[in-house]
């Protein structure tokens, strides 16, 4: 009876969970094509007018450009800072590692609203509130833990014997790491940068405290947009983002393989 129950119940539960996850995506995509001036699913008619309204909305398009720039710069800075931090974690003493873990992972543990208030107080004293630099720095702080976690997991899975052999043959620590360990960490680095970029695109709470008239990001602009308008333009934007994400994932899968990124990038951990 247990085997029979497991075989009959588990597929149903898995199907319900999958539908629960996919349903909002399907509704958003369907609503973006409606001809009505409000959300309707199933869509009443097929039209692309909300995509036309999206691409002619100067505020959202400007926010999209700012978001991409912030995401790319924050990902680059988080990678440049997070990779050495992850290396330091793997080679630190247990007591020091515990302290560093608490510091480096603090942005994931502290509530976002607390982090936003803290950054607002600090940035206001140095003139970074409402500036592009301030948003980039804030996003770097918020996404760097993802880089540290993924790269640290990748380093834990590496066999350091080859690097030790290179060191014994006269290679310096930097050269041995760059020529031996770094190429093996490529899937981990790709996964870390992908997670950091996605986290930056999705960051809203902290950004709300720091944006200015010309530096608003897409999530913040969208948040303000839906407060005063109920048309399906946000659904069209969501569909575009879904398509872009699918293209990026497909490209990564063709270049390095998502399976290798997940296995060696520490996604499971």
Description:
The protein has a single domain (58-264), classed as MetI-like fold, CATH 1.10.3720.10. Helix 3 (58-91) packs across helix 10 (186-202) and helix 7 (132-157) runs antiparallel to helix 10 (186-202). Helix content is 78%, strand content 0%. The protein is an all-alpha fold and 269 residues long. The model is unreliable at 264-269 (pLDDT under 50). It is globular, with a radius of gyration of 22 Å. The longest helix is centred in the first third of the chain and has 34 residues, at 58-91.
Descriptive terms for the model:
269 residues, globular, mainly alpha, MetI-like fold
Task: Describe the structure concisely for a colleague.
This protein is 78% helix and 0% strand. The protein has 269 residues and is an all-alpha fold.
How are the SSEs placed, and which strands pair?
Elements: H1 2-31, H2 49-55, H3 58-91, H4 94-104, H5 106-109, H6 112-126, H7 132-157, H8 161-168, H9 173-184, H10 186-202, H11 205-208, H12 218-228, H13 233-255, H14 258-264
Helix pairs in contact: 1-13, 2-13, 3-4, 3-7, 3-10, 3-12, 7-10, 8-9, 10-14
Number of separate structural domains: 1
Q: What's the order of the H and E elements?
A: HHHHHHHHHHHHHH
Distance between the termini: 34 Å
What is the mean pLDDT?
Answer: 79
- Helical proportion? over 70%
CATH topology: MetI-like fold
CATH H-tier superfamily: MetI-like
**Uncertain runs with pLDDT below 50, 5 residues or more?**
264-269
Structural class: mainly alpha
How is the biggest beta sheet arranged? none
Number of helices: 14
Rounded to an integer, what's the Rg over CA atoms? 22 Å
Q: In the CATH hierarchy, what is the class? A: Mainly Alpha
Strand content: under 5%
Number of strand segments: 0
What would you call the shape?
globular
